[in-house]
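Entry type: protein chain
Record version: 2
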Amino acid sequence: MSEDEFYKKAQVVKLDTLSDVNDIGKPWRYEEDGLTVTRTSPWSPPGCHPVGCGLKLYANDDGRLVKVEGNENNPVTQGRLCPRCIALKDYIYNPARLLEFSIR
């Protein structure tokens, strides 16, 4: 199973009892306000720096990224994001982005 297939098949957990403010104890993927929230590990940033921002990625039912937030429970960044993470949505959906390899 590829990594993409794994993430597509991962279950979304509906939360009814845990606090909306604090996500400690919540699973890495859960549903909130009709969006699927995926928390990234502080050790797996999108490649910007060695610290890692600790993101919460909000996706709609089609899997399209809607919003990027900092994880307030990240021990290093405490919810703050670097410029690259703030612009992550723009990087992903930029119409000039290359989606295939270029051949010289």
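Comment: Strands lie at 13-14, 29-32, 35-39, 55-59, 65-70.
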